[in-house]
Each structure stands twice: as structure tokens, then as C-alpha cells.
Amino acid sequence: MTEEESEKNYRSGLPGFLGVIDTAISKIESVILAMGVLLMALNTVTNVVARFVFGNSIMFSGELNRILIIMITFAGIGYAARHGRHIRMSAIYDALPVGGRKVLMIGIAFFTSLVMFFLLYYSVVYILDLYSKGRVLPSLGLPVWIIYIWVPMGFLITGIQYMLTAIKNLTTRDVYLSTGVVDGYKDTETEV
């Protein structure tokens, strides 16, 4: 099964209501990421064609790509957390026995979740500050605070995802990097 198929058929390993939340967030993230990447590619290609064929760029193209980059980045952090794709520095972690790794993973997941919720709070404070200033994007005319709405949404989704990972580790025997990824390394070497 390809990664694309596994994401399309994603089902959370969490029990009951937590699994429903996890699966719903996964589907929303997938749509946001796919839409964002496709829109950015379409916008960029259209702008290049307009520049070289008609001699003028689309005036709002840069602003639109800025919005899409923010959207993709902050939807992507939740996606990376769900699939256990964040960078790990695991020398100490790997040296521990399974029980120690499980305790450390629960601590890491809870702590990371708290950090995400802390950043969520400060991103909302930042957006409220932008809102009070009333600035607008020059080409699109949108208030600047609107383009940063994705930041707290991304921190919220990622915080929830790490909290669910901690819960998954508390309720199962194996050590999980995310709700659906069991700890371990895949052999990526290929024979020549």
C-alpha cells in the first residue's frame, strides 16, 4: 500500500471518541494540505505564464503564495506529528530498554503537547494584536490577521495529536511515536 493510499484510508488506532477525533482531524489535514499545494502550484505556474506571455505578473500572486505557505506549514506540523515524521534525536532514547522508552515517550508527548498549547495561546495573542492594528494586505485587501489564522489552528491540531500520542502510549503495550506509528526503524538500505 502506498503512502497516499494509507493516508486516504487512515483509521485511528485510538479507542472510541478519541479515534473519531483523530480520524476527522486526519481527513481535514489531508484536504488542507492537498488544496494548499495544488493552489500554490497553480498560482505559481499561472504567474510565470502571465509574466512571460503577457509581460506582467499577477499582482496578488506573492501574497496568495504567502498565505498558502503559512497554511501548508501549520497544517503540515499536525500531519508530521500524526505520522511520527518529526526529527528525533534519539541516542539516549535508543539506549533505554522498552519500558524506559515508553516512559520517556509519554513524557515527551505530554511536554510537546503543552508546548504546542503554549504556542497556541501566544499565537492567538499575536493575532489579536494584528487585528487591533487594522493592517491590510496591499493587493488582496484582506486584513493581515486573517492569513495567520492557520498558526493557532496548526498548534491546536499538533497539541491534540501529541496528547493523543501520550494517551495511546498510556493505554497500549507497544511504544508509539504517534497514534498510528509504532516505534522502530525501517531498513532503508537497498542492495545494488
Provide keyphrases for this structure.
192 residues, mainly alpha, two-stranded antiparallel sheet, 7 helices, 2 strands, 70% helix, disordered C terminus
Q: Determine Rg (CA atoms, Å).
A: 20 Å
Strand order in space, largest sheet: 1-2
DSSP, total strands: 2
Q: Compute the average pLDDT.
A: 84
Determine the strand fraction and express it as a percent band. under 5%
Helix-strand pattern = HHHHHHHEE
Characterize the structure shown.
With 192 residues, the protein is mainly alpha-helical. Helix content is 70%, strand content 3%. It is built from seven helices and two strands. The chain has a two-stranded antiparallel sheet with strand order 1-2. α5 (98-133) runs antiparallel to α7 (150-171). The chain is elongated and about 65 Å long. The protein starts with a helix and ends in a 10-residue tail after the last strand.
